[in-house]
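Intended use. Records like the one below are meant for learning the mapping from a protein sequence to its folded structure. Do not use them to infer anything beyond what is encoded.
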Amino acid sequence: MILHLIRHGETAHNRAGLGLGRDDAPLTPLGEQQAAALGIRLAGLPLTAIYSSPLARARRTAGAIAAHQSLPVLVRNELVEMDVGQTEGLSYTAMREQFPDFMEAWRTADAHRVPMPGGESLADVAARLAPLIADLRSQREGEAALVSHNFVIKTALCLLLGIDLGAWRGFTVDLASLTTVAVHGDRALVRVLNDACHLDASGREH
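Structure written out for the chain above:
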């Protein structure tokens, strides 16, 4: 089973460096260009399924991929971004001012167990994502695209590789990037990590 983990294109929140979780922010014009570039990048792959988070920025990106494939976009709620609670729409500076205790805990090795103020923890994300990952592993063959979000993709990588969730900070997942993992039963091999070579220089600015 080949899994292509894809982060959505740019939104205004991403461009401004603001916290973004369940807010249904649309793609910017640059984000639309990034999604189109992803569609072209994956056009030659024999995809057997395209899964997407229910949020518009992911569905729009998945739609750009589906435009080059004879496949529907299958929305899976498990792929929705982490609920960032009261940090939604805040800058990093504002988060430090309003939630100093959380920010201190977020910098520790146990950050994955710390819930966002009024929201989820990475451990919560892993709990809802694990059944989907297990289902994809059981399929044994095929090539699926999963269009999702920063925290979800980092969590999925930890689950697929069988490593501690505390290692999530070891991965960078840029906007409109592609990460490919080949799954062989209980083993997983990372073939591509955070690849954005399909974007031109302007598409990598944020």
